[in-house]
Each structure stands twice: as structure tokens, then as C-alpha cells.
Design brief:
- It contains 2 helices and 8 strands.
- By secondary structure, the chain is α+β, with helices and mostly antiparallel strands.
- An 8-stranded antiparallel β-sheet has the order 1-6-8-7-3-4-2-5, covered by helices on one side.
- The longest helix has 19 residues.
- The radius of gyration is 15 Å and the shape is globular.
Length: about 150
């Protein structure tokens, strides 16, 4: 697959998220449970997300991933229990769209790394994946994952 990387300027986005650690093989269950808990809590507040669900990767240790699982919201909200209020940082970022199964998103990361090096940028350390369509109703070959690396 050919990947196109793009430099963008993002606005800061308030979020509700659950930060946890898990092995890559457990991601589907962990992510699904977190999304369900956040949506239930947001519903109790009478608010809906304003964009695609995401996972922020604070490391890339596949057996001990440090991740934030969440949704963006229009307004800042108060967390509850393990659901924390936070934000997706604003500023410069590089984005790359992956179309296909989630377990093949590595090509987008490689494209971003090459783009960052070729354009003399420095990643801020956290990689985001935004899931633009629903895996329960979309064939794996058509899943859209936007990979975003905030830049220093």
C-alpha cells in the first residue's frame, strides 16, 4: 500500500480516556471494554463524542503497551474513577491514513518515520490512532485508521 503523509496543525481537543497497560493480543477486548465504559459515562453526563475514537500509544512494547483509550469531546469534562479527563495536544503533527486490517497498520508507522526523518522533524513521543469507521460493520479490508504523530 502507498502511504501519503501530511503535515497538519491540529487544535487541542478535550478527551475522556482510560489509561492502561496491556499486551497487543489483548487489545481488542481491552479497547472494546474501555470504549463501552467511556460511552456509558458520557451518556450519564448527557454528552456525545465529537470525533473518532482513538488509542494513544505511549510506548511500543507489544507485550506491555502503555495506552490511552478514548474519545474527543467539544468541551472539557470531569473524569470519574479510571475515566480521566485529558486532551489531544494541539500543534504540528504528521498524519498518515491506513486502509485495511488493524494488524497491518505498521506500514503507516514506517511511512511516518521516514517522513519525519526526511523532513527534519522530531516526534513528541505519543502516537495516536483514530478509528474512522466501525469494525463491527466494515470489512477488515476497508477499515480506516488515521495515524497521527504530534511533533515538537
Amino acid at each position: 500500500m502507498l502511504y501519503q503523509c501530511e503535515l497538519v496543525n491540529r487544535s487541542t481537543q478535550p478527551t475522556l480516556a482510560i489509561r492502561t497497560r496491556t499486551a497487543v493480543q489483548n487489545l481488542p477486548q481491552v479497547v472494546g471494554q474501555a470504549y463501552g465504559a467511556i460511552m456509558q459515562y458520557a451518556g450519564s453526563l448527557g454528552v456525545q463524542p465529537c470525533g473518532a475514537p482513538f488509542v494513544a500509544y505511549h510506548n511500543m512494547d507489544m507485550q506491555d503497551l502503555d495506552i490511552e483509550i478514548g474519545f474527543p469531546f467539544v468541551q472539557e469534562l470531569t473524569g470519574h474513577g479510571n475515566i480521566q479527563a485529558g486532551e489531544i495536544p494541539g500543534g504540528k503533527a504528521v498524519t498518515c491514513m491506513h486502509i485495511g486490517p488493524y494488524d497491518q497498520v505498521g506500514g503507516a508507522y514506517e511511512a511516518v518515520q521516514k517522513w519525519v526523518e526526511a523532513n527534519n522533524h522530531i516526534p513528541a513521543g505519543v502516537a495516536f490512532e483514530f478509528y474512522l469507521n466501525d469494525p463491527q460493520t466494515t470489512p477488515p479490508s476497508e477499515l480506516q485508521t488515521q495515524v497521527v504523530f504530534p511533533l515538537k
